[in-house]
Design goal:
Mannitol-specific EII, Chain A, 6 helices, alpha/beta, about 150 residues
Length: about 150
C-alpha cells in the first residue's frame, strides 16, 4: 500500500501560493522537484513530460483538484509535491471549476504499477470531502503533511 506521507515530503508542500497560468505553475513546481531530487534530473525534463501528459487530456479530476503526473528515467522512487493555491486557475477540469489543489507525481519510468497505485491512492484520499476541507484550512505544512497519514 502506498504511504502518501512518504510520497509528499514536507519540502515539496506549497501552501497559499499564486500562479496566473498552469504553465507557470508546472514550470516552478518542476524546478522545486528537480532541486529536491538533486540527482541530475532537470526541471525542463519534468516540465516537458508533465505538459506532454496534459496534452493527452487534463489530469484535473473535478472539485478543484488535479493530479499532474509523469514517469521519468533516472528516478528510483515516486516523489510528489502538493500545491495549494490561494486562488484556483483554469486547468480544463471536467466540471469546469478552477483548480486550487494540485498533487504532482513523478515516478520511475520502469515502475508503471507504482505510478498507477500512487494516483489511485491520491484519488481515493481526495474523494473524502472532509479531508479536502481540512487540507484547505490547514495552517501549516506540518498540518498538511499530518493529514496524509489519515
Amino acid at each position: 500500500m502506498i504511504s502518501l506521507s512518504n510520497v509528499f515530503p514536507k519540502e515539496l508542500i506549497l501552501r497559499k501560493v499564486s500562479y496566473d497560468s498552469s504553465e507557470k505553475l508546472i514550470g516552478e513546481v518542476s524546478e522545486k522537484i528537480a532541486e529536491f531530487l538533486d540527482c541530475g534530473i532537470r526541471k525542463e525534463n519534468i516540465t516537458e513530460k508533465i505538459l506532454q501528459r496534459e496534452q493527452l487530456g487534463s489530469t484535473a479530476i473535478g472539485e478543484g483538484i488535479a493530479v499532474p503526473h509523469c514517469r521519468l528515467e533516472g528516478m528510483s522512487n515516486v516523489i510528489g509535491a502538493i500545491v495549494l493555491l490561494s486562488e484556483g486557475i483554469e486547468f480544463n477540469s471536467p466540471d469546469g471549476k478552477p483548480v486550487d489543489i494540485f498533487f504532482f507525481i513523478i515516478s520511475p519510468i520502469d515502475k508503471p504499477a507504482i505510478h498507477l497505485e500512487t494516483i489511485k491512492a491520491i484519488a481515493e484520499w481526495a474523494r473524502d470531502k472532509d479531508k479536502i476541507a481540512k487540507l484547505k484550512k490547514a495552517h501549516s505544512v506540518d498540518d498538511i503533511h499530518s493529514l496524509l497519514v489519515l
